[in-house]
Amino acid sequence: MNAPIGQRASPDRTPPAPLRPARLTLRPPAFPPGPVSGAWWPRSDDLRAELPALIAAFDRSWGRVSRVAAHRDAWPQAPCELPVAGHTVRAAWFTSGFDPHAIRLFAYGVGRRDLLVVPPGTGTATAGRLMTAAADPALRLTASALLQDAGGSRPARDR
């Protein structure tokens, strides 16, 4: 018996690799969002490869993400649409007036979340400090200020 045309197995076709979980921290939901609501530490600067895991995390816990916004210079490629988790996420790119170290996620009917984007090549200890600081409800720093502060000797809370 023959399989329908669309269901034939192909020996050279491999299933897609499973998504690695997004490295993500968020402020507790009981606290109002500050300039950033948490941090995301992508493994590379390839938004097409990195965004699906981030979107999947938000789709499960917050609401279906329909749009993202970022600074154009932060990502080497600037696609207008990204296929993610069974739907398409539209991207808006800014060259001014937008923090180059942040990404903004929008979920229809829910709102928006701004996240610090920890640069992919950041060391584990520094990334951990940045992610903790970005999720701290007591801090009110922008993404760029958090990154700038990471090189300082005093804790961000004391500045």
From TrEMBL:
Q: Which domain of life is it from?
A: Bacteria
Q: Which Pfam families match?
A: DUF5994 (PF19457)
What segment(s) does the record annotate as region Disordered? 1-28
What is the protein name for this chain?
A: Uncharacterized protein
